[in-house]
Amino acid sequence: MHDPTSVGLVRAQRAEFDQPLTLQSGAVLPSYELVYETYGTLNAERSNAVLICHALSGNHHVAGRYSPEDKYPGWWDNMVGPGKPIDTNRFFVVGVNNLGGCHGSTGPSSLEPGRNEAWGSRFPVVVVNDWVHAQAQLADRLGIDCWAAVIGGSLGGMQALRWSVTFPERLRHCLVIASAPKLSAQNIAFNDVARNAILTDPDFHGGDYYRHGVTPKRGLRLARMLGHITYLSDAGLGGKFGRQLKNDGYRFGYDVEFEIESYLRYQGDRFADVFDANTYLLMTRALDYFDPARHFDGSLAQALSATSARFLVVSFTTDWRFSPERSKEIVKALLDGRKSVCYAEIDSQHGHDAFLMTDPAYMRLMHAYLNRVADEVNPR
């Protein structure tokens, strides 16, 4: 049965860029490809385009399904579609798989130009600003001079914030959800432990495991299990699993005994089957390096001084990885610079993952804000 709120069946598209891209590290990609999807229709004025920036494990597949048999819709299907907060009847929505990704865009598992093998360990480190520059190249290709909005959660929110700094004239609205102006030391520590699980896997081979015909699944599995714990709240985990045992009584061993252990191992195994370990390393390092205030004597207000976008900043009460206090740092910097900003702290039991969920207050907020954006950019 057709779902009138779904974008329906979708397909990925590919954009090839032959011009070199100089990265912040000084490394140069001689050419690159970006895989992306679009939903909705670009209006005649080209004013209704919305960019969705994905988080660490996300990709370009934001909404819809690839076939009628597809079990899993895009990762933000609850947010994007006809009549949904990001309404594809009113917006032209673009989702991109970032450079370094493992879902079609140029990354470590792609063939390196001039070599008949994957980039592997030779793929350069990328940072959020590199992604923003590549996304801007795609916008140029699509004929989009200015986004109606750039939207993202978590690492995606960092990209949205970076857009407002790097290309202040190219976005009207910036929606930063469950994010932060930079990582805390604790967050960097979590990322380092996750990376070490991968780096010390015997199948990692210094990042060149492709040529050995193996993948460091054990390390990637552990990295995902650790990360997944930080994305959830204690209350959420306790409410769902508590201390439930899979069987009656203790077995006095180290196999799976508690339901939470079974859940985490399932999540780790599933992730290790579909994600690339080198990409995980790149994405977590990009998180670590993000700090737009770094070149402004540590002043976020100064870093945001040139932006002309209007902001919506959203946090969630039980998000301890990117707590509401971190979002308030962004809000304060914007207010110090006399910028336009709306802030909402949503009561949720879902922890950091709340930005992916359908908490009613969150959905109402997004509907209301984006309805105003749509009214603004769609001529009557």
Notable characteristics:
34% helix; globular; 380 residues; two-stranded antiparallel ribbon; alpha/beta
Can you give a write-up of this model?
This protein has helices spanning about 130-140, 155-165, 185-200, 215-230, 235-240, 260-275, 275-290, 300-305, 325-335, 360-375, and strands at about 15, 20, 30, 30-40, 50-55, 80, 85, 90-95, 145-155, 170-175, 310-315, 340-345. It has an eight-stranded mixed sheet with strand order 1-4-8-5-9-10-11-12, sandwiched between helices. A two-stranded antiparallel sheet has the order 2-3. The protein has a two-stranded parallel sheet with strand order 6-7. Helix 1 packs across helix 2 and helix 3 packs antiparallel against helix 7 (about 275-290). The chain is globular, with a radius of gyration of 21 Å. About 35% of the residues lie in helices and about 15% in strands. By secondary structure, the protein is of the alpha/beta class. Belongs to the AB hydrolase superfamily. MetX family.
